Amino acid sequence: MRERMNVTVWNEFYEERTYPSVSSVYPDGLHVVLGQALAEHLSPEAHVRVALQEEPEHGLTQAVLDGTDVLLWWGHLKHDEVSDEVVERVRRRVLDGMGLLILHSAIESKVARALLGTSCKIASWRHDDSELLWTILPGHDIVRGVPNPVVIPKGEMYGEPMDIPEPDELVFISSYEGGEVLRSGCAWQRGKGRIFFLASGHEESPIYFQPEIRRVLANAVQWATPPAQPQPKVTRKGEWPRNWWAEA
Amino acid sequence: MRERMNVTVWNEFYEERTYPSVSSVYPDGLHVVLGQALAEHLSPEAHVRVALQEEPEHGLTQAVLDGTDVLLWWGHLKHDEVSDEVVERVRRRVLDGMGLLILHSAIESKVARALLGTSCKIASWRHDDSELLWTILPGHDIVRGVPNPVVIPKGEMYGEPMDIPEPDELVFISSYEGGEVLRSGCAWQRGKGRIFFLASGHEESPIYFQPEIRRVLANAVQWATPPAQPQPKVTRKGEWPRNWWAEA
Amino acid sequence: MRERMNVTVWNEFYEERTYPSVSSVYPDGLHVVLGQALAEHLSPEAHVRVALQEEPEHGLTQAVLDGTDVLLWWGHLKHDEVSDEVVERVRRRVLDGMGLLILHSAIESKVARALLGTSCKIASWRHDDSELLWTILPGHDIVRGVPNPVVIPKGEMYGEPMDIPEPDELVFISSYEGGEVLRSGCAWQRGKGRIFFLASGHEESPIYFQPEIRRVLANAVQWATPPAQPQPKVTRKGEWPRNWWAEA
Amino acid sequence: MRERMNVTVWNEFYEERTYPSVSSVYPDGLHVVLGQALAEHLSPEAHVRVALQEEPEHGLTQAVLDGTDVLLWWGHLKHDEVSDEVVERVRRRVLDGMGLLILHSAIESKVARALLGTSCKIASWRHDDSELLWTILPGHDIVRGVPNPVVIPKGEMYGEPMDIPEPDELVFISSYEGGEVLRSGCAWQRGKGRIFFLASGHEESPIYFQPEIRRVLANAVQWATPPAQPQPKVTRKGEWPRNWWAEA
Question: What per-residue confidence (pLDDT) applies to C1?
Fold first, then answer.
């Protein structure tokens, strides 16, 4: 684990204050529960802060992003109200090395679509299905200590085909009570940044309270944290280092 | 479609003559039904022949392989009795361009393991589950004209994790009645050859009689057929062509 | 080959009318030579038309795109003047199945960045280097009939690291006189569309007159052409077809 | 870094005792220099031991492999004399999580071919070329602290096409004095094990004395070290954990 990880949890924070079906589960906001999940596993190394869509610049000034190692993104109904400028800022920061966790419906957010390039649409969805989250890559950092399968008693079905680029690593596949399937845990490298999509996380169910899912989130944050020491910049011809080793 | 495709259907041909539960479904052998499925879709371009495990050299002499564009492989209980020499011969021919369809339990055959490098083991299996075969890549050649999902009323559950190399293209995912999932349609390139694994095909169910599955098989054979015109060999330094175009 | 392929060659068409170093090589525009290259190999099946940046809607109305199977894109100095609306229109059409060839400096175009998600920046560049274009995947459709290597006497060096998503298939790697390397032929699937980037194509050198490169372009157009028959749409639960085959 | 990493350096150890051109560079054997390189960077966490082809069971008993986290493999002229039994033992151990570094000519070893499935042949080779080793993935663990490019004054050219499965991650590409290129740093996941191929390492040149290459080797060992805590085994239906979290 890195000595210190700066994590920012971004939340749309709309449904929790609007719909009883959501506020009854996440009265203080999804971001609070997500933050607690990370603190539970990653304290004291992780420093977790929150950014909300309603804040100026959506809480994501350049300074905040520059000070963020991993960004979690949860959004659903207000994707279109996120400013293009902030989306571009996030995109560049990911390419420069910041990790990004795309949570549940955020797969269709502007940020996800900007980085992945596709529509990220799913073919079908349905509330109140139970879900089995299956580990496909048992050696992957993100599944460490996670039972296989994880049983989610009630969530939201998201059905394939989902219009995403082929993941670099397909970590989880879910099946739902109705028989549909989803590539529900997908990892991509974009620029120097690592991106992980976790589908499980419907706002009307206490999924982010489930210990197994909290473990997945914490593992994913660790996995997505950029290394402390970057690679030296590429040198141009004529600047290539003399072969000092050969002359020693 | 190529003007002519030479297809060889290889079959272990043991259970069809041993177990009533199998012979009642495939009295003449799985190879016969597989061959009919291809003929149905690919005649007159495809010329289909059969090779059986019991034949000398398992029916796969170098001459047969040299004359084969795409090989279908069905085996289950007798994997270990396939000679290493023939396995190596098949492996080399695939690397040299021959297409290979790995059918159902053949994912654990010596041929599959030699070409993929992993154990190809599945974590669980169970008879008599219904299966939904979901298309993940709607633009892929192999899914052309195939409904999504394909409903298989009764088959055999194969459960993840399955120990295979990450597919180059993940074409199908299946869910089963019991809730398990499988990467049930996987495509790999190995050398100049194309390999496709289709999990659906339990020998106690008439799955290869299903029109949708027959369509998948025919599509896969077309997809795996090598091009008629190969690339010129690599030239060594000093043999590189003069820039004849620049001198014209 | 498809019975008919509708190809649109899009060109920025600025340098050919501005700089003698370019107009002396491509006096009628790069698009004319690109179109001739395709006609040479793909007539009469391919119908090639041209669209220019200076035209209304950059020549890419929805109707034009709907009637295009494969789009070639050449741009360099005027990327920023391409309207976001047209970029989004192209992006959607690719996701819906249209093929796209990204040529040379167009790797940094808005269209390429929108579909790939990364900055697409290269670490270094330099004029007047000779280039060797090496085939990495000898079985790939795009290299059929192409010598290995292709010798390009004078072009433009593009040096790694290049900030692109890992290609689904790495078809070519180039080395340059100065020692740099580039993943110069990259294939991606995005949605239902196929994308191919070919780096070779500097506007001050007659690279698109080279027979080997013309062959690569024609092969890539064929490879990127969507199939005539699409897959049926996904059906929702409750609409799944009865197992009509079982009842026949 | 893991608290303790057990590393085994395996060497054919033939040329160093046979050819003056090799013994003059590596008088004590390549394994000694490789071990020193790792000790230099990874002490005291790494415990490095040596295994030689000439030893009983090639020094790789089941007990040795079970106690190895990462295995380095250097071989060249005696590939065929490695016993199939040991190869199979190594293959299984990698699938079970052991990391593997395939060094230089070992890309054509039995172990590499068994795990990768292809012939691993290169199209051309030549002694005494200088090499530039270019980083393609600047965010990758293996390139941390490594200059880009690394200049290798004299080595052995290995030319594409090389018959390997598409790497999961292409970390380095080399260009050589003669103009050839190679995917010289390739990463694969196989089972639970991580595999890395580093081409640079010709036995007649002091490449493993170069600080940049030693850094690459140390980084690769860390990257390939399996996590201390494995994932729980998959549970079968009926054994799935009660949702204890929901009942708390």
Answer: 62
Interchain pair B147, C191: CB under 8 A? no
CB contact under 8 A, C246 and B168: no
Domain ranges of chain C: 5-120+182-247
pLDDT tens readout for residues B170-195: 999 999 999 999 999 999 999 999 99
| Residues D117, B115: C-beta atoms closer than 8 Å | yes
pLDDT of residue B10: 98
Q: What is the pLDDT of residues D130-181, one digit of tens each?
A: 999 999 999 899 999 999 999 999 999 999 999 999 999 999 999 999 999 9
pTM of the model: 0.95
Answer yes or no: do B161 and A132 touch at CB < 8 A: no
The answer to whether the CB atoms of A95 and C115 lie below 8 A apart is no
Which CATH superfamily includes the segment(s) A5-228?
Class I glutamine amidotransferase (GATase) domain (3.40.50.880)
**Per-residue pLDDT tens digits for A167-204:** 999 999 999 999 999 999 999 999 999 999 999 999 99
For residue B115, give how far its alpha carbon lies from the nearest alpha carbon of chain A (Å).
20
Substitution target from C192, C231, C237, C239 for chain B, most B beta carbons within 10 A? C231
Residues 6+ apart with CB under 8 A from B195: B94, B99, B100, B101, B102, B115, B116, B187, B188, B189, B224
- Å between D55 CA and nearest CA of chain A: 31
Contacts of A149 in chain D (CB under 8 A): 234-235, 240
Residues on chain C bordering chain A, Cβ-to-Cβ distance under 8 angstroms: 91-92, 95, 114-119, 123-124, 126, 159-161, 163, 165-166, 168, 178-180, 188-191, 234, 236-237
Residue in B closest to D117 by C-alpha: B115
Band (pLDDT 50/70/90 cuts) for residue A247 is: very low
Q: Per residue in D211-235, pLDDT tens?
A: 999 999 999 999 999 987 666 677 6
| ipTM exceeds 0.85, yes or no | yes
Which chains are within 8 Å of A by 3+ CB pairs?
B, C, D
Taking domain B5-247, whether its CATH number is 3.40.50.880 is answered by: yes
Structural domain D5-119+183-247, CATH architecture: 3-Layer(aba) Sandwich (3.40)
Of D97, D135, D240, the CB nearest to A231: D135
CB D216 within 8 A of CB D146: yes
Kindly list the residues from chain D whose CB atom is less than 8 angstroms away from the CB atom of residue A213: none
Q: Residue A173 and residue A167: Cα distance in Å, rounded?
A: 12
CATH superfamily of C5-120+182-247: Class I glutamine amidotransferase (GATase) domain (3.40.50.880)
- Comparing CB atoms, the residue among A116, A160, A168 nearest residue C166 is A168
Per residue in A113-146, pLDDT tens?
Answer: 999 999 999 999 999 999 999 999 998 999 999 9
Q: What residues of chain A lie within 8 A of the CB of C91, using their CB?
A: 117
Query: Number of CB pairs < 8 Å for A and B?
Result: 60
Q: What pLDDT digit, counting tens, does each position of B88-99 carry?
A: 999 999 999 999
Contact across the interface for A148 and D233, Cβ inside 8 Å: yes
**What is the pLDDT confidence band of residue C241, given thresholds at 50, 70 and 90?**
low
Say what the pLDDT of residue B241 is: 53
Neighbours of C141 (CB within 10 A): 15
